[in-house]
Amino acid sequence: MSKSEEKNQLIECVPNFSEGQNRHVIEQIASEVESVVGVKLLNVDIGKAANRTVFTFAGSPAAVCEAAFRAVKKAAQLIDMRSQKGTHPRIGACDVLPLVPLAHISIDEVAQYARSLGERIGSELQIPVYCYEHAAFSVHRQNLANCRSGEYEGLAQKIATSKWKPDFGPGVFTDSVARTGATIVGARPFLIAYNVNLETDSVSVAQKIACELREKGCRKRKNGMPIGDFVPGKFKKVKAIGWFIDDYGIAQVSFNLVDFELTSMHHVFEAVVSSAQEYGVKVSGSELIGLVPLKAMTDAGKYFLEKQNLPLNVPESHLVDAAIQFLKLDDLAPFHPADRIIEYRMAE
After folding, report:
1. Active-site residue, selected from the candidate residues 24, 88, 140, 266
2. How many CB atoms lie within 10 A of CB 242?
3. Quick check: is 88 catalytic?
4. Per residue in 91-137, pLDDT tens?
5. pTM recorded for the entire structure
6. 114 to 72, 117, 259, 320, 344: CA distances (angstroms)
7. Domains with residue ranges and CATH for the chain
8. In angstroms, rounded to a whole number, what is the distance separating the alpha carbons of residues 51 and 90?
């Protein structure tokens, strides 16, 4: 790597905090991020019903890691997991903290930054830390769902086992750990958090669709009880759950698209439409959580224009508009490309 490339290394951090209702708490965490020179806070996505907020910020690796540490420290001071409730799975005040390569840096290099950050959080803040994805020290910890299994309520029992001794930080459920929970730190490629809205309040339908489409799939059932091994779902590199969003009175199928070039938003959207029809349910639209790469939007725009036998040789903005229109990304709230596409935000 040349000196200029090393100097221009850029990573993104997308920490998820277990607070989506107290704006004062969220603002204080955001202030910690913004206090670090060389870091740009790109987006703060507040999920009131999920009681969860997703931050997105980017900058040089060292600066991003410092901002992440300060944010975790502030969250540990302000969020008490002993009384925290929400619809989204979580294991701690800062639930998951992924670092993502953006420019002139490899995923292996980012993994080393993630491990160093995890070690600092564990030693200085006395928070149990699990490393996942490319930063994992063992195969069974690569999957985020495995690290989060049991959630906060099962943490005391989990960290007492040899299999789930934290990678860093205390391995005992102290009063301090009872307050903060654990944090899962890792390095991963760009992930798109994408939800599809159903015109129903049936969580059962949303969960069934999630099972059908996610890579993990679901178990067959007999007399309402799961039996046997998991039957894989339709899409690779896709995680999904079904839930109810009280603020909107609807059920959603909530996706993490781990590799959006392998499994795209537009293919997932159409698959949900098809599956929902089988249950007699319509799709009203979809929403993005956090930021999205420009390529994911232009790919979707090209896909839908081609389906309509419309020309593809159009300006980039037209492709983005087509993606918004056909994915119905403004179903629940206005979708402003300048605020939601990462390349546009970084260029400001």
Report:
1. 88
2. 19
3. yes
4. 999 999 999 998 899 999 999 999 999 999 999 999 999 999 999 99
5. 0.78
6. 14, 5, 20, 33, 26
7. 3-187 (3.30.990.10), 192-347 (3.30.70.670)
8. 10
